[in-house]
Amino acid sequence: MSDDYIRSIAHKWLAGTATEEETAVLMQWYGKEEEKKYKPVWWIGIAATILLTAGVWWIIQKPEGRRMAVYVPREQQNRIVLPDSSIVWLNADSKLQYREDTLSREVTLTGEGFFDVSKRTQPFIVKAGKCITTVLGTSFNIKAYNNEAVAITVASGKIQVQDEKQHISILTANKQITLEKTTVERTVNATVAHAWIHGRFEIDNETFETVANNLSRKYGVTFHFENEALRKCTFIASFDEHATLERILGLLCKINNSTYRISEDQQEVYISGQGCSL
Predict the structure, then answer these.
(1) DSSP tag of 54
(2) Exposed e or buried b for every residue in 197-206, given b needs 16+ CB within 10 A?
(3) What residue segments make up the domains of the chain, in order of their start?
(4) Which of 206, 267, 277 is nearest to 31 (CA)?
(5) Distance between first and last Cα of the chain
(6) Is 70-195 a domain of CATH 3.30.310.50?
(7) Does 199-277 match 70-195 at the fold level?
(8) What confidence score (pLDDT) does residue 115 get?
(9) Mind listing the pLDDT tens digit for each residue in 169-188?
(10) pLDDT in tens, 27-62
(11) Strands 106-116, 259-262: parallel, antiparallel or unpaired by DSSP?
């Protein structure tokens, strides 16, 4: 495929308007170009450039303000230090946009990130999904993948969350807010929400569908449920950083009376059985 076509898709991806099909084409191109990491790959017109560094896309928009867009593909994670010294851990299949300017304390997240924000008088703002999170200096996890509920969990300090209806919630340590069709606040163990930065895989009363989405990003596979009812089965489980996909699936299927099958190319996972409907 031509560089012009890839450039056009990259422009749309950067703006958040790329379709799933166009994003898939871009991911395929990324896989073929990965061996060129540590070097500039090509210029997107005069607007941006992409560099591949340790499996991460760094997209730098020009000319004003040097707006950065960092993308972490599936099966990977990355730690980023922002210009104000705040630290962000990005989970697989996540994108963070920010200005390379110490005076700017505003970022946009698509996917999942754990933020350890440096304390300043100027607020630090995260736009994710349809909500805005504002802090001064604290640590928190935001999970905001496309077509999934937004979940914000506070590890330390205090944050303010504003939803699309302009409703404002104040959260403190070990509080979580989930925004989907309705807004739910609850008390949680915050370490579970950001255990992924240490390689652990935690399941906190989540549906099989949500778990499958998380496993898809972590292991680079696609799930198929042969019985749709299985999607709604729920789990509570904890796995260390050494857990394989097979180990996780084996335990989950045993718990919920189902079975799994992985394709020969290790790319597809099929879940079958009556599961929790029994």
Answers:
(1) T
(2) beebbbbbeb
(3) 1-63, 70-195, 199-277
(4) 267
(5) 50
(6) no
(7) no
(8) 97
(9) 999 999 999 998 888 999 99
(10) 666 655 444 443 333 333 333 445 555 455 555 555
(11) unpaired
Structural contact between residues 113 and 150, judged by C-beta atoms closer than 8 angstroms? no
- Read off the tokens for 166: 């302009």
Dihedral angle of Cα 242, 244, 250, 256, to the nearest 10 degrees: 80
Look at phi and psi of residue 43 and say left if phi exceeds 0, alpha if psi is from -120 to 50, else beta: beta
Residues in Cβ contact with 199 at an 8 Å cutoff, skipping those fewer than 6 apart = 240, 241
**Eight-state DSSP code of residue 46:** T
Of the candidate CATH numbers 3.55.50.30, 1.10.3720.10, 3.40.47.10, 3.90.580.10, the domain formed by 199-277 belongs to: 3.55.50.30
- Walking along the chain (278 residues) 10 residues at a time, the average pLDDT comes out as 72 71 72 45 38 54 67 90 93 90 86 95 93 93 94 96 90 94 91 95 94 95 94 93 95 92 94 77
3-state class (DSSP) for residue 16:
coil
Strand bridging mode 139-144 / 131-135: unpaired
What is the predicted pLDDT for the residue at 9? 77
Which DSSP symbol is given to 196?
G
The DSSP string of 72-89 is E-TT--EEEE-TTS-EEE
Q: Taking the CA atoms of 172, 178, 183 and 186 in sequence, report the sign of the dihedral they define.
A: negative
- Which residues have CB under 8 Å from 2's CB, separation 6+? none
Check residue 16 and give its pLDDT. 66
Handedness of CA 135, 136, 140, 141 (dihedral sign): positive
